[in-house]
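Practice problem: 3-isopropylmalate dehydrogenase
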Amino acid sequence: MAARKLLLLPGDGIGPEAMAEVRKIIAYMNAELNSDFSLEEGLVGGCAYDVHGKAISEADMAKALAADAVLFGAVGGPEWDSVPYDVRPEAGLLRLRKDMELFANLRPAICYPALADSSSLKKEIVEGLDILIVRELTGGVYFGEPKEIRDLGNGQKRGIDTQVYDTYEIERISGVAFELARTRGNKVTSMEKRNVMKSGVLWNEVVTATHKTKYPDVKLEHMLADAGGMQLVRWPKQFDVIVTDNLFGDMLSDIAAMLTGSLGMLPSASLGAPDAKTGKRKALYEPVHGSAPDIAGTGAANPIAMIASFAMCLRYSFNMVAEADRLEAAVAGVLEDGLRTGDIMSEGKTKVGTVEMGDAILAKFQALAT
Ligand code: NAD
Ligand code: IPM
Ligand code: MN
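Answer key — C-alpha cells:
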C-alpha cells in the first residue's frame, strides 16, 4: 500500500507541544503496527509569518493540498497582535479551510465517564453526554464580502462583515449532519436566527427541504441559536447532532467543550466533499482550542484534544477504525487511572504535564494493542 501522507502543521503556542505527543504515537504505529505514515511538516500561523511574512507559504499550501490528511495544532498569540489583518496567524487556518474546501467541521463533545465530576455543571447534566456539533466552515460571516473597515470621510469608520449563505452550502452541510445522525441517535437540531437574519430564514427553509426530500427518517428540530446556547447548558443530553453556521458553530462548540470538562478535551475534523472518482475527502484535523498563550512553554497543556483529533484522522481519512477506537479507549483509560492536566478540575487526582499525559496515553494504546 502507498504511504499514508500526513502533513503536520504544529503552529504556535501549545500547538507544537501537543503535536509532539501525536508524533510519538505515529512513530510507534509506524515501528510496531506497520502503519506506513509518511510525515511532512510545515509552518502555519505566527511562526510562518516570522519566516515568510504571511501565515502560510504557497509551498506549505501546496503540501496541504497534496496530503492525504493534515494535522493542525493551533495558531496565534500576543506577539502577532499588531500584524496586518490579512497575514495574521488565524488567516493561515482560514486559508487552509477555504482552499481545501473543508466545509464540514465535526466537533464531537463527549463527556468521558471519569470526567463527569470535572465540568462546571452538575454531574447528572453531563454524565454520559455524547453530542456532535456539525459546523459549516467555509461560508457565512467568516468569508462573506464586503469585509472591510470603510472610512466614511466624516471622522467615522464603518466595520463591515457580511453573512452570506447559498442554497448549496446549506444543503451540503445539512446532508452531512443527517448522514451522521443516522449512524448515532438519529436526531438533528438545526440552529440559526431566522427571527433576525435573512440567511437564517434561508438556512431554515433549506434544512427543512433537505430533510423532507432525502432524510425523512431522521428526527429534525429547529432552534434559535441563542436559545440553543442556553439549552446546551440547561440540558445538553437532549441533543444528538447540532447543525449550524460558521460563527454560531464556533461559539456553541466552545460552550460544548466545557460540558466535557475542558476546552483541552475537544477534537475536530474539517472535511471536504468526497472526490467523485476516488471517494477520498480532503481533511484537516484540529483541536477546538487555540494556542493558549497563557500556558504555552510551561509543559502544562492538555494534549488530549490533539490526540483525539488524530484518532478522528485515523477514523475518517484512513478507515483505521480499530486503531481509532483503541486510541480513544487509551484516552478514556488514563483519565480512569486518575491522570489530569491542570486545565481539568481534579480534586484528589494526579496532576501531570503534557509529556506525562502523552506518554501515559501511548503506553495504554500499546497495552490495548497486545
Ligand atoms: P485558547 O483556546 O487558546 O485558550 C482559552 C483558555 O483555555 C486559556 O486559559 C488556555 O490556557 C486554556 N486552554 C486551551 N487549550 C488548552 C489545552 N489544550 N490545555 C490546557 N489549557 C488549554 O483561546 P484564546 O486564549 O481566546 O486564544 C488564544 C489565541 O489562540 C488567539 O490568538 C486565538 O485567535 C487563537 N485561537 C486559535 C485557534 C486555532 O488555532 N484553531 C482556536 C482558537 C483560538
Ligand atoms: C476555531 C477558532 C478559529 C475560528 C480561529 C482561530 C480562526 O476559534 O477553530 O474555533 O474562529 O474558526
Ligand atoms: Mn473557536
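Discussion: The CA atoms of residues 287 and 306 lie 5 Å apart. Students who identified this feature from the C-alpha cells alone can consider the problem solved.
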